[in-house]
Amino acid sequence: MSRLRTLPDPDLMPALDRAMVRHDLAAGLGPLNPPPRILLLYGSLRARSFSRLAVEEAARLLILFGAEVRIFDPSDLPLPDQVEGDDHPAVHELREHALWSEAMVWCSPERHGQITGIMKAQIDHLPLEFGGKRPTQGRTLAVMQVSGGSQSFNAVNTLRLLGRWMRMITIPNQSSVAMAFKEFGEDGRMRASSYYDRIVDVMEELVRFTILTRGHADQLVDRYSERKAAILRRDADKDLATQAVG
C-alpha cells in the first residue's frame, strides 16, 4: 500500500502565466539533472483540505520546473509514541520518503494560531537521526500556510522554527494564503491571484536553493560537536570490543 497521493491534472495550471515562466531556473547554480527530489507534506485530513490543495498547486509547479515530487497522505499516521517503537507502516513509509528527498514543502492550516496536530505529528515522526541516517538534515525547506481568516504568519513562523530544529536549510521566501476558501474554485484549483503568484515565487526559490546546495549539504551542516561525539562513541565501542576479547 502506497501513501503517496496521485496528483490530479499535473500539467493543468490555469492560474499560471506561462509566458512569465523561466525554464532556466538553475542557470549558473548547477545542473537540474538528476531532477530535484521534493517531498510535500500537508496538515489537514478534511475531504476539501486547503493545505492539500495548496500543496498540489505547488507540486504542479515543481514538476514544471523540472523536479520529481511526492505528496505524502497522513490519513492513517498514528500519533507519536502511540505505537511501540514507531513500528507502523505509515511511519516507515514517511521516513523512507524523507530519506529519498533532497527538499521538502511543509504546508499547514493555521488552527488556534498555530500549526495543526496532523502537521506536527508528521514532523515528530522524522527523528534527527535513526539507524545512522538523517531524514531532514541538510535538506532545503519551503514553508506555507493557509488560513480561514485574515492573513497571518503564525504557522509559517512555527514551521520555520521546526525546520531550523530539524537542521534544514529553510529558504527565505514563504507563502501565507488568507481566506483560503475564497482562493480555490469548486474544482479544487487555485484562482489567479497574488497568493498564487507567491506560491510560484516560493517554488522557484526552492528549486534554486536545492540546486545551489546540492553536493554541499553535508559540508554545510558539518558540526564540530558531532565530529567530537562520533570519535568518543568510536573509542567507547573499541574499548568494549577490547574488553570482550580480553
TrEMBL record:
What are the entry keywords? Flavoprotein, FMN, NADP, Nucleotide-binding, Oxidoreductase
Tell me, what's a Pfam family for it? FMN_red
The protein depicted here goes by the name NADPH-dependent FMN reductase ArsH
Q: Which SUPFAM superfamilies match?
A: Flavoproteins (SSF52218)
Q: What PANTHER family does this protein map onto?
A: ARSENIC RESISTANCE PROTEIN ARSH (AFU_ORTHOLOGUE AFUA_5G15030)
The family line of this record is: Belongs to the ArsH family.
Q: Which domain of life is it from?
A: Bacteria
Say yes or no: keyword Hydrolase present: no
